Predict the structure.
Amino acid sequence: MDGKPNNCKVATALETIVGKWKIAIMLNLLHSGTMRFSELHQALPGVTKKMLTSHLRELEGEEIIKRVIYPQIPPKVEYSMTEYGATLQTVLDMMHGWGEAHLARKQQYDL
């Protein structure tokens, strides 16, 4: 960051990765590796198939995840993090640490 608020790209980064289920999708793929649609759906209780599909397509469009379709009946589709998407691991770890510290602070001060 060059110190100029108007040039800050934090909003750009957040627009790319923030969505009700996007972080959970990425964390599951980072932790578990390649997963099928049904596995992701089971790993995210409460997400609808429509919302999961939407978030997967958005993440794929940003080249954060990749989708591989196997030509068979029934179709087999697998999702995994791209090499580029895996670079978010550090960012997500840092955000997790900040979130833990923030929760502890809130509990300490009853915020």
